[in-house]
Amino acid sequence: MALVLPQLDNSEYAVGWIAALPHERAAAEALLDHRHAPPQNKHTKDDNIYSLGSIDGPNGEHNVVIAGLPPGRYGTTPAATAAAQMLSSFPAIKFGLMVGIGGGIPSNDNDIRLGDVVVSKPEGTFGGVRQYGVRKATDHGFEERGSLNSPPRVLLNAMGALQSKHERELSAIPSILEAMYKENSLMAKPRQGPGYIYQGTNNDRLFHPDYAHSASKKDCSECDSSKELAREGRSDQDPYIFYGTIASGDEVVKDARQRDLFLDCLCFETEAAGLVNDFPCLVIRGICDYSDTHKNDRWQRYAAATAAAYAKELLQITDAAEVQSSPEARKIMHELQEIKSDTNKIVLNIKQQHLDRKRERIFQWLSPLSPSARHSESREQRVEGTGIWLLEDPKFFDWSSEIPKFQTLCCYGDPGVGKTVISALVIDELKKRAVSRPEIGLGFIYCDYRDQEEQTTENVLGAMLKQLLERLSEIPERVLTLYEERTNHGKQLSSTDATDLLRMTCSHFSKIYLILDALDELKPRDLWGLLKCFRDGSASIQIFITGRPHVGGTIREYLKTEQSITIEARESDIQRFIEYEIGGPNDIEPKAMDKQLRTEILKKIVDSAKGMLVRAILQATTIRDREESLKTLPSDLGEAFAGTMTRIERQVKELSERAGKIIAWTHFAERSLTIDELLCLLAIRDGDTSFNSRGIPVRETLLNCCHGLVVIDQETSTVRLVHYSLDEHLREQNQILGLTKAQWHSKIARTCLTFLKFPSVSAREVPEQNHRTTRRLLSYAATKWGHHLRRSEGLPDAPLELAKEYLNTGLANNVLSFRLFCERMDPYLYTESLFNDVLPVHIVAFFGILRIMVDPVSTAWNLDIKDGNGRTPL
């Protein structure tokens, strides 16, 4: 009668045992103390074939599930699949044992022999298993892929107890094997091939790493014995047990030189890396070869048996109650997956932040310019439907086609005809095309006469490079390399670098569109530099340029062939704009308009605008005030500006004076002022001895008094005149809002000097970091007051006395402003010595203020005294 095996419920099994090869599984099955019937059921997607049983010990019985891998399938993926399927059918499993053979890594520190056992144990940063990959073509042959999770605590506790036991007495492995041979005689004396018994010291040969196996025979009978490494003999043939790191990967290592790159590990194997990160387990390996070319199958069965015997001895000492109280492996796997997922997200986030910061640094190095904000402002100025005529022009259609006849399209027009609005329209049109076509690159810049110092050839090219690189998923290696090379030597982007990078970047796109608005507002040197770069650039670049007609000759000189279109504010465009501004959705007083008046206003403005959109804008913002304005519409742009100035003067005194200061500061300032700086300057009054923040005007309504002549540049947060043509108009005037230019310079100089004499500004302490505006104002006042005073020194009320008071307080009382002046006076030769030696006479000489130099009080100054760089005032 056949023996009836007990059949347990799947939930009663707590130990999962993975044995990849048939002889590894045979050894595991042979060491079970009791065999159980096959499982009653399995998960529908579980393909494993199981052997069930139990192992007894003084600390309780352990029910074990054994699974192997399909024949011919080994490696991390099949092992992971087997473990996952096992847990789907046996949900109560607490941990796993990965038991089988491995290739030894003998060293001076670890005299590993064939048949010895290696057990994964956490060491340092490694959790007991270290993942590797064999590289196909490298100097070192191995690619690190990280370390994996530690074994579960219940197994570490048992392993520690077993190590302590082996300090007192020998391992039970030999006796466990003897019992196995007694119960399974065929394993000791197989019908063919080596059995599960010790294979003899004469078959345990370790050769020099450089000595390769003789290919004529499978075993090493013909290998040169003189190439063997001499090793001290052992007193018995019982296996030694080694604890440490196991190297795991999909590739079998068969090269001693590659093996010796991992001397900090104990052996190689090919399944554990698929388990330990997702399945809490311990890896146990019996050593069957030395991972070299002399590798053969002779020791595999014995090595599988010693590893299985250690696993049994470990379970025998493991507390069954502790196992039952341990969390289920499936739950641990889920938590590990969540942790892994969260960790991956954190790592990716950190990496992305690092990349973003580096990208930001690279972009800042390429250029400080950010044209996008200016583009948003220009888009807001355009009324829907205006400028469409350009997109329908055959020349634009050809230029923007897939195979254009001309590389360059220039749009010329007089001041105020709407060239910038046209540029914004073209940019938006090309942006729409590029949305679904990543192979199209787009870069643009709005040139501005007020930003000539910053809008250099290098910065303009760099700004367009940034826009092109933003469309790429990764910054090209050439850009990264050049950035590192230049910044390591403290160098900025040169025009040559920018040209080379632009040419290189072109290779990442099938076509690149570059739009340059108001090219004529650049300095001539920078304009020539840009055109030279475009001339030497790639044929895949399509260039769109707007500017005044006079720049056409220069463009044609550098870019031999170009198409041109004359820009005028078409009647239809002006009409759309006026309809939008007067009595339309943008009218602040839409009810103060009847149909007859609206029609009359439209006709009158359209007739008088003469193709100039700026004039139409100015008129539209004033005509709604009074119907009588229709009788005095200006006939040209200068008259339009003058009319607006007149309306500014007719405001209440407070508003007209404020408008005068705003326009004067915006027009006469030596550099562009931010809106915050302007607010602070307007708060300073003659005779003030400290800064009173309660005098700062309301930011939101500040510019209303200027009737549209001053606007905020959204890109830089600076204030500027509405158009270059207004700046030209003001330069031609003798007076601005009732004051001469010299009088305005005098007022500006007085404000600067008043600010410099504030105790909070002249003190030694540097202002707090959040007072950036204060620091910028201090820099402006300290380095520009003299220029404004020089331009007003012919006036009887010029603030000469205020300047003398400031200068005579000396370095000790004006540390910050004097230092900023010295840095500005000679930024390349600035030293602490120059700062300490600077005197009022040097400052006055630098600014060229003759009335102070010849003043009787000042004649006592020594005009021969030298500064820190050996220069005298003369």
UniProtKB/TrEMBL annotation:
Keywords: Repeat. InterPro entries: GPIID_WHD, NLR-like, NPHP3-like_N, Nucleoside_phosphorylase_sf, P-loop_NTPase. It comes from Helicocarpus griseus UAMH5409. GO terms for biological process: nucleoside metabolic process. The keyword Transcription regulation does not apply. The keyword Repeat applies. Residues 385-548 form the Nephrocystin 3-like N-terminal domain. Residues 657-733 form the GPI inositol-deacylase winged helix domain. This is Uncharacterized protein. GO terms for molecular function: catalytic activity.
